[in-house]
User: Fold this.
Amino acid sequence: MPISSRGQNTAIASSWHGRLTVRVESDAGSVPVERQSFTAGFELQGNSEQGNMTLFTPLGGTAAEISWTPALAVMQAQGEAHNFASIDLLISKAVGTDIPLPALFGWLNGRSTESTGWNVDLSQFESGKIVARRVTLGPAAEIRVVLEK
Assistant:
């Protein structure tokens, strides 16, 4: 579950860890997208504006480290660093589709934050489970999160 602390200027810094699954279905639309899916352990700190995330392999090794600010996003994986102008561009390139990062942080805090085209199920949030599905505006996609306490 989220661990929150208040700092100066009432900014809230939060951190989470658990398992993340992202699945993107193939799209028969004007821009075809191949079906993609990945599951990883994760540690996440920050918010949609600034933060960092580490993704872990099933054996606990580091698969990728991602950090972002409003001006730059960097992904380090397999000994290489890849720079992007924004976290949204990094996510789109890495996952193959857009993910509503501001809404995702709301969902991680147990809020049913709205995002156009996405439905979120927080009915099992108390047991650490979040499921969000994109139903319009792009290929079908699903995000599943299991938070560890």
